[in-house]
Fold Alanine--glyoxylate aminotransferase family protein.
Amino acid sequence: MTTSVIPGPIDPPARLLMGPGPISAYPSVLRAMSAPLVGQYDPFMTAAMAETQELYRQVWATRNEATVLVDGTSRAGIEAAITSLVRPGDRVLVPIFGRFGHLLAEIAERAMAEVHTIETEWGQVFTPSAVEEAIVRVQPTLLALVQGDTSTTMNQPLGEIGEICRRHGVLFYSDATASLGGNDFEADAWGLDAATAGLQKCLGGPSGSSPITLSDRAVEVITSRKKVEAGIREPGDPSAPDFVRSNYFDLGMILDYWGPRRLNHHTEATSMLYGARECARVLLLEGRQQVIDRHRLAGDAMLAGVQGLGLEVFGDISHKMTNVVAVYIPEGVPGDAARQAMLDDFGIEIGTSFGPLHGKVWRIGTMGYNARKDAVLTTLAALEAVLRRFGASVPVGGGVDAAADLYAGK
Amino acid sequence: MTTSVIPGPIDPPARLLMGPGPISAYPSVLRAMSAPLVGQYDPFMTAAMAETQELYRQVWATRNEATVLVDGTSRAGIEAAITSLVRPGDRVLVPIFGRFGHLLAEIAERAMAEVHTIETEWGQVFTPSAVEEAIVRVQPTLLALVQGDTSTTMNQPLGEIGEICRRHGVLFYSDATASLGGNDFEADAWGLDAATAGLQKCLGGPSGSSPITLSDRAVEVITSRKKVEAGIREPGDPSAPDFVRSNYFDLGMILDYWGPRRLNHHTEATSMLYGARECARVLLLEGRQQVIDRHRLAGDAMLAGVQGLGLEVFGDISHKMTNVVAVYIPEGVPGDAARQAMLDDFGIEIGTSFGPLHGKVWRIGTMGYNARKDAVLTTLAALEAVLRRFGASVPVGGGVDAAADLYAGK
């Protein structure tokens, strides 16, 4: 081994993260991340876990006892939900309206499900009747539907889907990673059986912890597949033949760890727990509806701003998430070089996109801590300057004026 | 929903964590955890990822290009290694000498492997010839062997196992969660094909990130099962029929994300990356061998101390890890109440154990930041006081004197 020079302490540059996420965390969340550790079964730790569960019940708008964190990034929560709810060979229906629909389908395929998909054009959402028609045709065990797909900025309405699923005896799962906290989400009122998220979008924290909530119906399915780990198994503990094909993502074991039995599974990621707890805490201190309204206001201002700069917005605006907007990169402007100039010259990050939209649109987010007037106006001022330096013809002050007017209620 | 009272900011009590882990993190690791976030593809972020890879190559003593982090707790790394290396039906051999051997077997079973185990009494380790005999008999694809099993405190010698595996065409995987950083580990010299760890033991960080390193031979197996995710797949991208039955733990995709192609997979857990980087940084600044020596000294002092208190040590001391010791709970002393008194009256955590040892031994750790003289002596002074208050007859000053003498070189 050649011993290389050891780098200095981590010292990130100043960044205003206005992309599709991750975004700049709330300062108090960063402070929580550095709190001292305690033991796994310290009464303080188990109390902090219980508090976190109760906080997320409020964030999700649910009474579900089974409301916990999965230790991993948002797709860890997705995989835990799908792998625990779906037996090999079960039919899963995934309506796809962007990249993350493809991800749900892929995860279900890896879980050995029989995956059926319906697709709509990127930039659109599904009507409830389109979903119901597919449910009737496919007769799935599980409907897996993204709420907000950051790849297209669309927000799939979920309000009527739960009732449809219930009527047809289908479990209803939604991933709300991109949307939770900045858009309406009503786990119980909408009839969700499972929902997952991440911290790095509207919740204003770092990636690495995935909030999840499960209805009693979902817990029943999961419990029927329960297996207690060899090495801590006691006589009488169950070991179902159709056990979940993952130890880490077996929600039955994860619930036993968070539940009163506190059966050892993983060692809870203490710092991420502290961060997740603080994300929910700042949200609820401000007020759940107030935070959604703040996201809507910032999103409307950013939308007015980019339109004020003469940029064309991608997709069906009436179904856009509050917290992100996609704009076509103007003809003649090199998309990646302009993004780089935003970062290098202004310290502001905006995003590109995936698949059919790669290189065609930029995505600009207004999420969590950064769903703020100063963040919106600063981004628009910088974007105007960068567009002009790359030769685009943009109205002087067009972005800032439109956004500031909207904030002023004009 | 009844809206409950919103708790205050996280404010953990003072704790000296002297159990089997998690342990108190290095202060600089906690500071790193609160550094501001940057974007996923920010040049600063990709540079921090590359630095972290290079730091862990030194920690693992390897030249493996494929040295990365898995975003999850230590068992996430274990599941990623086993699930990516083992095809359904492959034979896996797991020598079990404690709880975590059972865990490796369980994870391999969930990955649909044909699992074969050999077991030895808790408190012992395997001879190379016992492992070789089983390899010859089972003809496995993979040998999965824990290095340090915290449940028994034993440190399985690995030095000769790699050569045996190579000779029989077997992939060699070891989990070093409990041991890495505090005990010798030589990934290349010992012929490891895969090794995994966690931060919450000798590396002195929080749980939630799992360092992993993979030999070229392991990467070949993983690459042969490669599948690029739908939604970001391009023409010509592979999609092997025997793909890994997990998206999150598909090391082929994780390597593509960490590698030059930087193919989007999860969103790297930024704060955990900062923490993992700092864990390796403080270790290498002090010096890899120096840190192991510090663990050995603290472990020897704690061993002398508990023996000086008249406690009987569990297991084969000649194969004990440096960083944890198990002692029989003295006759007449209520084990859990005494541990509780250590915590409540002195703010010091020591551990219980699992399975056959549950309620019979305490486990006392000296790891990472807490592999320090003051931590050792304080723990022994408190333990003496607690034992006496619970009616045990203990030599006055016997623990502190023995440990202090050892530190003084007497």
About this structure: The first helix of chain A runs from residue 27 to 33.
